[in-house]
Amino acid sequence: MALGLAPPGQASACARGAGGSTSHNLYGVPRLPQITEEKDTAAAIRHAGGLLGHFHASESDRGELGTGQVRWKKIFAALKEIRYDGWVTIESFATGIVDLCAAACIWRPIYESADQLAVDGLAFLKRHAAKA
After folding, report:
1. Cα-flanking dihedrals φ and ψ of residue 90, to 5°?
2. pTM above 0.90, yes or no
3. I need a labelling partner for 87 at 20 to 30 A (CA). Which of 39, 46, 48, 54 fits?
């Protein structure tokens, strides 16, 4: 069974309740629902454990990683603790797509350029993964 649910605390509860016991059943996303629904993102990651199969990295405002309210140090420590070795994908939104920006409540520029977001985001993820 594969579940595409966020936040991981809710998703792992659903997967475990449905008999999910194999790895790679769910993914976690530290983004708006995660920040507003999980009291402790790192604890939710630890709870998900081996069920965590794909991780989306997104800042609280969907902009540049490390510029918002996400507690990245704790998140990377939790990923290391559960021995997560899957993909970490940067999740942001294209600010040039007006309908998408309206639906995602993006009302101001969240990054300088998509290319720079990718370059800086990758460097950010590598730094935090190495320190964890």
Report:
1. -75, 125
2. no
3. 39
Q: Within 10 Å of residue 70's Cβ, how many Cβ atoms?
A: 20
The pLDDT profile of the chain, 132 residues, written as one tens digit per residue, is 444 445 555 555 555 555 554 444 444 544 444 555 677 888 888 888 888 878 888 888 788 899 888 899 999 999 999 999 988 888 877 677 778 777 777 777 778 888 898 899 999 999 999 998
Contact (Cβ atoms closer than 8 angstroms) between residue 95 and residue 109? yes
CA of residue 127 relative to chain centroid, distance: 16
Alpha-carbon gap, residue 114 to 96, rounded angstroms: 10
Write out the residue range of the structural domain in which residue 45 sits: 8-131
Q: Number of helices and strands (H, E) in the chain?
A: 6, 3
Whether 3 is in a domain gets the answer no
* Residue 2 lies inside a defined structural domain of this protein: no
Residue 89 DSSP class: E
Say if 1 falls within a structural domain.
Answer: no
Which domain CATH number covers 16? Answer: 3.20.20.150
